[in-house]
Amino acid sequence: GVQDRYFRYEAAGDQYLGRVVAGLPQYSSQFAVLPPHFDDRGNSIVRDCTDLIFPSTKDNAHIAQVLILCVASLVVHAEFL
User: Fold this and answer.
1) What's the superkingdom here (predicted)?
2) Is residue 42 over pLDDT 60?
3) Do residue 66 and residue 44 come from a single domain?
4) How far apart are CA 81 and CA 68, in angstroms?
5) What distance in Å separates the CA atoms of residue 78 and residue 81, rounded to the nearest whole number?
6) At residue 10, does pLDDT exceed 70?
7) How many domains does the chain contain in total?
8) Is the pLDDT of residue 37 over 70?
9) Cα–Cα distance, 56 to 50 (Å, whole number)
């Protein structure tokens, strides 16, 4: 999955730059925290929710993993939004 492929490398340049540009404090332990995600991305509720929010991408397995991360971020930030 996405996490297994990209989040395991602590020195990844894209993630580092993205966090710096987002204004996260570089010398804080929170700088290395993973983005919002579901522990069980295969959960039928998560898949159904993603299909409901993004119906046109329902059959695209490649984008589905990214969209699940988007839904997780929406859930975490719902109060702010």
Assistant:
1) Eukaryota
2) yes
3) yes
4) 18
5) 5
6) no
7) 2
8) yes
9) 10
